[in-house]
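Support request, please re-run this one:
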Amino acid sequence: MIFGAFAMFPGMILALIGWHIIGKPDEWGNLQIVACYGPFFGSIVVGIWLGMKNDLDVELET
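Re-run finished. Output below.
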């Protein structure tokens, strides 16, 4: 869950870039859902997925 929280910040930046790419429209439409919500929630999902990967064979070397 921590990785998902940290992945939120790059997701916000990607969503802002997507909003700028589509021309900063004033009215909300289906295109904004893909361009703004897709990168934001996609990065959170990838962060949670990476955080939940569990490698039991990994040992710390001292």
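The CA atoms of residues 49 and 55 lie 13 Å apart. Helices lie at 2-6, 8-21, 30-52.
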